[in-house]
Amino acid sequence: MTAFEELKGVGRPARDAFALAGYPDLESLDGVPWATVLDLHGVGQRGLERVQAALQERGLSMQGAPEPRERVNEFTAGATGKSDSKTAITGVDPRDYIDSIEGRRKEHGHILLDVYGRATGVAPAMWGPTMIGYGEMHYKYETGREGDMFIVGFSPRKAKLSLYGIEPVPELGKYTSAVSCTYVNKPEDIDLEVLERLVREAWEKGPDAC
């Protein structure tokens, strides 16, 4: 049987919804009405399309599933300089920025610099006033909006630490998540070795992880 955690692009909200509804693995969705699964709280259209694609690879299918649509969003390696976003690389040194932070976030920022540095093997850059990113990619959405962004990164914000680009797993520890962002109160709440693994996996996948 195939665990939902093995499927790229199927987030934790959807995985939790499947488990709560009594679908423990991918194969358990074979023959289940598409509309029934889509109605589950936490399940979105795009994520369910990825689930259906995985089922079809195994000769299975949800009942009444629509024909797969062509992927319109594009993610490519490297920056182009063409962007609708104001977020861009600045000339500020990330370590200088972290050293300027007051309170516990200074220590937390240096911890994350070490973790992300080991996982990616590259130097970080400041993106905008508060985000520290590694690598560069270009995105273009079906709405026409496009821009450059880092592949993985973090921000030691006052309220919570924001971790970008990773796919969190329960073993990470105590966190909350939203689209493309994982929030942590403090490093002590998570397993830093697991975080380093997640960052490394996302880094190795590059734009394909988006």
In short:
Helix content is 30%, strand content 17%. With 210 residues, the chain is an alpha+beta fold.
Q: What distinguishing features does this structure have?
A:
single chain; 6 helices; elongated; six-stranded antiparallel β-sheet; 210 residues; 9 strands
Could you describe the 3D structure shown?
By secondary structure, this protein is an alpha+beta fold. The chain is built from six helices and nine strands, in the order αααβααββββββββα. The chain has helices spanning 12-20, 34-38, 45-57, 94-99, 104-120, 192-205; strands spanning 74-77, 125-127, 131-134, 137-140, 146-149, 152-156, 161-164, 176-178, 181-184. α5 crosses α6.
Helical fraction: 25-40%
Query: What oligomerization state is this entry in?
Result: single chain
H/I helix tally: 6
Query: Roughly how many Å apart are the termini?
Result: 25 Å
Give the overall silhouette.
elongated
What is the string of SSEs from the N terminus onward? HHHEHHEEEEEEEEH
Q: Please tell me the overall pLDDT.
A: 86
Low-confidence stretches: none
Number of strands: 9
Task: Tell me the layout of helices and strands.
Elements lengths: L11 H9 L13 H5 L6 H13 L16 E4 L16 H6 L4 H17 L4 E3 L3 E4 L2 E4 L5 E4 L2 E5 L4 E4 L11 E3 L2 E4 L7 H14 L5
Helix pairs in contact: 5-6
